[in-house]
């Protein structure tokens, strides 16, 4: 039975409406799960097409499909399909004007609300849309070969007729559904963000594991459909026996995590680790199928696209390294390898910069961004550097530990200098006391050799399907100097212009926003401007985006004067074709504001011809600086040349210098950062995750090794305040003493339970004084928390019980006899439920299983347990939704018909308590711990609880 597209639109509209609700806000994960539960009858049918639904809910995942349709072209197709007149077409084009505050999808919805389509005879289905879009993608040369070879859709035979089919769909859709179809074609549902993990688990609990091994929605969907029809596999472990890698189907990549310091990295690994050189190239997953003869090589890129033809110049190096078609070939059927594609110079005897790759590798047959590059020299050629093997002759190595896989890789590969190589690496034993200094020195050597960074890998399998695995197991950790401290800072840049993107503007929730993308540049005639007052001439180097905090700062405190590009006469701009894909700024700032940038390295972007920051990130928005204070274009080029071409040191002096620098960034010695009084600072990272990100249906999660164990890998993408969590962790760690080190809890391994607590009663934590109902202050997200009653260190009675889902009693590891926080049932708001740092803090207080689903508190086993909740007050909308969830529980005091009031605290109370406990531990190290109990009741602890109180719900 076909699945109606209107059902999908129901879900998308609920998610969008949920964002703007003032009360009764639910988590996106709950809405998605309820939707799947409601439609489970259709989803479990034998004729249900899983891949079609996944392609509809997660269109951005279909990287193999390229439609070559953007907003302007789609506007034309919609206008033709709906047969609009000139005035209606002008109305459809309002999305290009910032003052309208609408995207193309909303313009389509507005037109169809005014003049609705007649009720169609046949409703539009997910399968119908999927077939049409597949046919359009099959006609585009930028789609993957598998899509192009699959043939055209049944609707029309030419690309033009295929695209006309889109207009026919719009004539059969109501206004709301047309809006979501528009966003689906553009592969962007923003501001609605659907978590893929929630969708995968809701469709089937085995789907995330399937997509790890076979990272293709169509293939994984077919496997799941077959499993559902045959009803064979019942569990995750059985799945590992039935499923293995398949030649020609890309394997999903391991989870990659950014290491923020040496200490941070060592906290995520264990035992002997492989410390590998990170190369600045392009990822390759190489499939060798000897049954295909000369066409035995297939190469997948990081995005999952089949780039075999584009990388044909690499094929000979692969053949020679595996000795294919030779008697000594070590493989009989095939294999799957991982490696990095780089460009090697026989003349300079070294691997060249990343931007050299585009001269040797085309994109779907077209060389992009090479207009200002020199021709490929005869002494330059592609090279492959291998670092892993995932399958050999039908034998999967995904469950084999890394050291064994690398040994098999060494036996498999024939190293040919300049053409093929194994990644350089060193082994470090993390169980030794010298592990930190060993890693620090290896990292310093990498920096002095102008390497990109290091990749740290524990001796783990490639994938582990066990839901109880150790945190960070099977993860690769990237360590670059730009991730640490201020090593990546470049300097101040001028913001010379901006443009507006309607879809992006909706994610900021700022009314009347005029800019979303900012053009930054450097003065080309800085000396003339400073000495003679000449007209400023800027070279635009990059286009950057701001996070929500920075955008609010830009609008509220900077709000620069702007004019249209045609009216600009105050400054001159040099904008190369390679900047922002040829798009130019719509608005120009006659007096450019100033921002501070950091980057990973320098690169020559295509069609520019000069050095510019690579992956630039805005770290500060300055309110008190002139564009004349910014870095000049000449200074930028000199800085880049110096960074790229500095000769390696002849002795170890620079290594020692870097060792000292890295030592200074460690949490134990890092000073509290300061900022200028008028410089508004905010970290720029990825968009903060929705409260539902990576939330599993489990009620509680066990915390071990300082992190929350989750059923899906942690993403490398960190939210804008997740980095703040790590930075806070560093500052708190500075207060830890030898007392904490001596009482450090050993790592929990699989099968171990949390440390058991003493059976004696807990003397005190703090008894949170419950006010009378009339004086209750209903908790609300606010910056200056107040309390309706004094918050003092509450005392637990002997009858208090630990959460019934715990596996054993636990206690604080710093002041085990004084801190009774572990006897509280702690509820985490969705905003912080998945962050390892919060898990570290809770674990240090003996809490191994925080509650992440408020409904658990309805259980009678929790009736006599003291309860409190932790929130992120900097996210007021999500916090208010969390409060509403607690209110809906209608909790009663045990044995009474009175409402129970739950105390709410800012999660940062945990780190302050930890720091204070560490200080108390030093004071009481040689004395009876009971002395600390008195101090806890009358000293700083009561002040800490009161300071971070958010009231009661």
Give an account of the 3D structure.
With 953 residues, this protein is of the alpha+beta class. The protein has 5 domains: 5-203, DNA ligase i, domain 1, CATH 1.10.3260; 207-242, no CATH class; 255-483, DNA ligase/mRNA capping enzyme (D-amino Acid Aminotransferase, Chain A, domain 1); 489-645, Nucleic acid-binding proteins (OB fold (Dihydrolipoamide Acetyltransferase, E2P)), CATH 2.40.50.140; 756-952, no CATH class. Helices cover 32% and strands 15% of the residues. It has 31 helices and 29 strands. The strands form 6 sheets. Strands 13, 14, 15, 16, 17, 18, 19, 22 and 23 form a 9-stranded mixed beta sheet that branches. Strands 3, 4, 5, 6, 7, 8 and 9 form a 7-stranded mixed beta sheet that branches. Strands 1-12-11-2-10 form a 5-stranded mixed beta sheet, covered by helices on one side. Helix 1 packs antiparallel against helix 2 (28-38), helix 4 (50-57) crosses helix 14 (217-230) and helix 5 packs across helix 10. It is globular and about 85 Å long. Pfam families: DNA_ligase_A_M, DNA_ligase_A_N. Belongs to the ATP-dependent DNA ligase family. Residues 384-504 form the ATP-dependent DNA ligase family profile domain. GO terms for molecular function: ATP binding; DNA binding; DNA ligase (ATP) activity.
> What percent strand?
15-25%
User: Under the CATH scheme, which class of the largest domain?
Assistant: Alpha Beta
Give the radius of gyration: 29 Å
> If you consult CATH, what is the topology of the largest domain?
D-amino Acid Aminotransferase, Chain A, domain 1
CATH superfamily of the largest domain: DNA ligase/mRNA capping enzyme
Query: So what's the overall shape?
Result: globular
Please give the domain count.
5
The CATH architecture of the largest domain can be given as: 2-Layer Sandwich
Uncertain ranges: 152-156, 668-809, 928-939
DSSP, total strands: 29
Helix fraction? 25-40%
Alpha-beta classification = alpha+beta
Distance from N terminus to C terminus (CA atoms, Å) equals 47 Å
Number of helices: 31
Biggest sheet, in brief? 9 strands, mixed
């Amino acid at each position: 039975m076909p699945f109606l597209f209107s059902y999908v639109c129901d879900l998308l509209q609920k998610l969008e409406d949920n964002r703007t609700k003032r009360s009764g806000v639910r988590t996106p994960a709950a809405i998605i799960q309820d939707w799947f539960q409601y439609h489970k009858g259709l989803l479990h049918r034998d004729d249900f097409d899983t891949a079609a639904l996944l392609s509809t809910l997660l269109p951005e995942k279909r990287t193999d499909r390229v439609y070559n349709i953007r907003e302007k072209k789609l506007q034309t197709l919609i206008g033709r399909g709906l047969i609009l007149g000139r005035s209606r077409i002008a109305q459809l084009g309002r999305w290009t004007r910032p003052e309208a505050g609408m995207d193309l999808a909303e313009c389509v919805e507005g037109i169809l609300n005014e003049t609705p389509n007649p009720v169609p005879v046949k409703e539009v289905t997910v399968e119908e849309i999927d077939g049409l879009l597949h046919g359009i993608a099959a006609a585009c040369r930028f789609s993957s070969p598998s899509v192009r070879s699959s043939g055209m859709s049944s609707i029309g035979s030419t690309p033009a007729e295929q695209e006309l089919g889109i207009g026919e769909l719009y004539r059969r859709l109501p206004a709301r559904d047309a809006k979501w179809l528009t966003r689906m074609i553009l592969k962007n549902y923003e501001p609605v963000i659907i978590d893929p993990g929630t969708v995968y688990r809701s469709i089937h609990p085995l789907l995330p594991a399937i997509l790890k091994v076979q990272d293709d929605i169509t293939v994984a969907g077919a496997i799941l459909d077959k499993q559902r029809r045959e009803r064979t596999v019942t569990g995750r472990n059985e799945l590992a026996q039935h499923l293995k890698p398949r030649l020609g189907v890309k394997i999903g990549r391991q989870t990659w995590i950014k290491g923020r310091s040496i200490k941070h990295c060592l906290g995520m690994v264990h035992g002997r680790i492989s410390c590998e050189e990170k190369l600045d190239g392009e990822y390759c997953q190489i499939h060798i199928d000897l049954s295909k003869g000369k066409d035995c090589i297939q190469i997948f890129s990081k995005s999952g696209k089949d780039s075999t033809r584009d990388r044909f110049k690499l094929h000979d190096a692969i053949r020679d390294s595996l000795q294919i078609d030779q008697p000594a070939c070590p493989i009989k059927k095939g294999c799957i390898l991982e490696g990095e594609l780089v460009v090697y110079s026989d003349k300079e005897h070294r691997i060249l910069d990343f931007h050299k790759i585009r001269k040797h590798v085309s994109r779907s047959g077209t060389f992009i961004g090479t207009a200002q590059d020199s021709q490929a020299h005869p002494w330059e050629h592609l090279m492959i550097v291998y670092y892993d093997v995932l399958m050999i002759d039908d034998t999967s190595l995904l469950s084999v530990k890394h050291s064994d896989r690398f040994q098999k890789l060494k036996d498999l590969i024939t190293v040919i200098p300049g053409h093929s190589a194994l990644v350089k690496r060193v082994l470090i034993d993390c169980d030794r006391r010298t592990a930190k200094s060993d890693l620090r020195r290896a990292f310093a050597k990498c920096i002095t050799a102008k390497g990109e960074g290091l990749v740290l890998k524990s001796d783990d399998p490639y994938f582990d399907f066990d839901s109880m695995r150790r945190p960070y197991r099977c993860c690769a950790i990237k360590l670059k100097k730009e991730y640490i401290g201020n090593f990546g800072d470049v300097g101040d840049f001028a913001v010379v212009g901006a443009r507006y993107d309607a879809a992006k503007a909706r994610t900021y929730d700022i009314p009347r926003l005029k800019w979303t993308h900012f053009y930054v540049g450097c003065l080309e005639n800085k000396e003339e401007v400073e000495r003679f007052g000449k007209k400023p001439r800027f070279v635009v180097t990059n286009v950057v985006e701001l996070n929500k905090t920075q955008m609010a700062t830009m609008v509220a405190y900077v709000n620069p004067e702007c004019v249209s590009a045609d009216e600009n006469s105050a400054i001159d701009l040099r904008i190369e074709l390679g900047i922002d894909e040829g798009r130019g700024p719509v608005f120009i700032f006659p007096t450019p504001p100033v921002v501070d940038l950091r980057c990973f390295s320098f690169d020559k972007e295509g069609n520019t011809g000069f050095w510019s920051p690579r992956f630039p990130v805005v770290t500060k928005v300055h309110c008190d600086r002139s564009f004349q204070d910014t870095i000049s274009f000449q200074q930028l080029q000199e800085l880049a040349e110096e960074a790229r071409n500095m000769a390696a040191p002849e002795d170890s002096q620079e290594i020692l210098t870097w060792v000292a620098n890295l030592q200074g960034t460690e949490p134990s010695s890092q000073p509290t950062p300061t900022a200028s009084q008028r410089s508004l600072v905010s970290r720029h990272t990825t968009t903060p995750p929705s409260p539902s990100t990576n939330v599993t249906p489990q009620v509680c999660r066990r915390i071990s090794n300082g992190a929350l164990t989750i059923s899906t890998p942690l993403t490398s993408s960190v939210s804008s305040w997740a980095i703040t969590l790590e930075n806070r962790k560093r500052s708190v760690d500075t207060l830890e003493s030898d007392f904490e080190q001596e009482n450090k809890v050993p790592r929990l391994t699989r099968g171990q339970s949390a440390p058991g607590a003493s059976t004696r009663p807990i003397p005190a934590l703090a008894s949170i004084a419950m006010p009378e109902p009339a004086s209750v202050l209903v908790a609300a997200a606010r910056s200056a928390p107040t309390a309706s009653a004094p918050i003092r260190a509450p005392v637990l009675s002997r009858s208090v019980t630990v959460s019934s889902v715990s596996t054993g009693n636990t206690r604080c590891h710093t002041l085990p006899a004084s801190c009774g926080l572990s006897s509280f049932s702690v509820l985490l708001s969705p905003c912080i439920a998945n962050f390892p740092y919060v898990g570290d803090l809770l674990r240090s207080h003996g809490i191994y299983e925080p509650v992440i689903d408020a409904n658990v508190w309805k259980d009678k086993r929790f009736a006599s347990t003291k309860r409190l909740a932790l929130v992120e007050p900097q996210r007021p909308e999500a916090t208010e939704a969390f409060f509403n969830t607690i209110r809906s529980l209608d909790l009663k005091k045990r044995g009474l018909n009175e409402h129970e009031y739950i105390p709410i605290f800012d999660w940062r109370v945990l780190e302050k308590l930890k720091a204070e406990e560490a200080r108390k531990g030093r004071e009481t190290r040689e004395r009876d711990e009971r002395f600390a109990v008195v101090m806890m009741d009358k000293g700083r602890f009561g002040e800490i609880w009161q300071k971070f109180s958010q009231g009661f719900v």
